[in-house]
Specification:
The chain is mainly α and about 290 residues long. It folds into 2 domains: about 25-60, no CATH class; about 65-260, MetI-like fold (Orthogonal Bundle), CATH 1.10.3720. It has 12 helices and 2 strands. The protein has helices spanning about 1-35, 50-55, 60-90, 100-110, 115-125, 130-135, 150-175, 180-190, 195-220, 225-230, 245-255, 255-290; strands spanning about 35, 45. Strands 1-2 form a two-stranded antiparallel sheet. The chain is globular, with a radius of gyration of 23 Å. Its main location: membrane.
Length: about 290
């Protein structure tokens, strides 16, 4: 019996070792560093307790980065889940050319972020970009997509939506395909119309998939760094400065590793709270379904 119980642990040991080395250890180290003033690590560090956290809460740059991150997360997640649901509803029915439409819709998601940002940087170009050429053709003035403080963050949302709507689309399409056709047939026999079927059957049955898509996108959007770094660098001014960019600047440009660690801990706590909230909602939905 004992040897039988040890065998699964032996198979899990390499994965547990890597998880501890690559996940648990960095998290613990970052948490401990957040209580010190240091430019690199624990060597020569001085303990400051909660001063790093207090300094962050009093830093206007941190508050702006937090607001930008929350705004981007909410706007991008709502747009991606909403558009993904719309596309899934449109494509769920069989029609000629469906086998071509679905791969075309998914194509942006398989591109690397650097390729995506290179494409959109060209499209956003003020003088020669595709988007401004379309505006000029329609008799409208060009837009400084990445250099107008009031528009720059929406431009980042647009890029993120273009690249990651395919993910929410696939999740919700899979959810639609899992709904039994007999449910729709029974609803039609009872006299339900398309709108009633959508609002009273399809959407309620898709709630777990919508929550899953929202969880994945909100966590990924909350920690966005690559698109901001490649397209705006956090500018103009601080219009697109996110928490990830803020942590990067503190740690790798100003070498204030202690405060950067404190900001990272706050990010981890917020992302963990989001994940826990969605997980509870999903489990409640599954328990009710059961």
């Amino acid at each position: 019996m004992k040897s039988g119980r040890l065998v699964p642990l032996l198979f899990l040991a390499p994965a547990l070792f890597l998880f501890g080395l690559l996940t648990i250890y960095p998290l613990v180290r970052v948490f401990l560093l957040s209580f010190f003033y240091t430019e690199y690590g624990f060597s020569g560090a001085s303990f400051v307790g909660l001063e790093n956290y207090a300094a962050l809460l009093g830093d206007s740059f941190f508050r702006i980065a937090t607001w930008n991150t929350i705004f981007f997360t909410v706007t991008a997640t709502a747009s991606e889940v909403g558009l993904g649901l719309l596309l899934a509803l449109l494509v769920s029915k069989r029609f000629p050319g469906r086998f071509i439409v679905i791969p075309t819709l998914v194509a942006p998601f398989v591109l690397s972020t650097m390729v995506v940002t290179a494409i959109w940087r060209a499209w956003f170009h003020y003088d020669f970009g595709f988007l401004n050429n379309v505006l000029r053709a329609g008799g409208l003035p060009p837009v400084a997509w990445l250099f107008d403080p009031d528009i720059a963050i929406f431009s980042l949302v647009l890029v993120d939506v273009w690249q990651t709507v395919p993910l929410t689309f696939l999740i919700l399409l899979a959810g639609l395909q899992s709904i039994q056709p007999e449910i729709y047939e029974a609803a039609r026999m009872d006299g339900a119309g398309p709108r009633q079927i959508l609002l009273r059957i399809t959407i309620p049955l898709l709630i777990p998939h919508i929550l899953l898509a929202s969880l994945l996108r909100s966590i990924d959007s909350f920690k966005i760094f690559d698109k901001v770094y490649a397209l705006t660098g956090g500018g103009p001014g601080q219009a697109t400065e996110t928490l990830s960019m803020y942590v990067y600047r503190l740690g790798f440009q100003f070498f204030d590793v202690g405060m950067a660690s404190a900001a990272a801990v706050i990010m981890i706590v917020i992302a963990g709270a989001l994940a826990a909230l969605y997980a509870v909602r999903i489990m409640k939905g599954e328990s009710h379904a059961g």
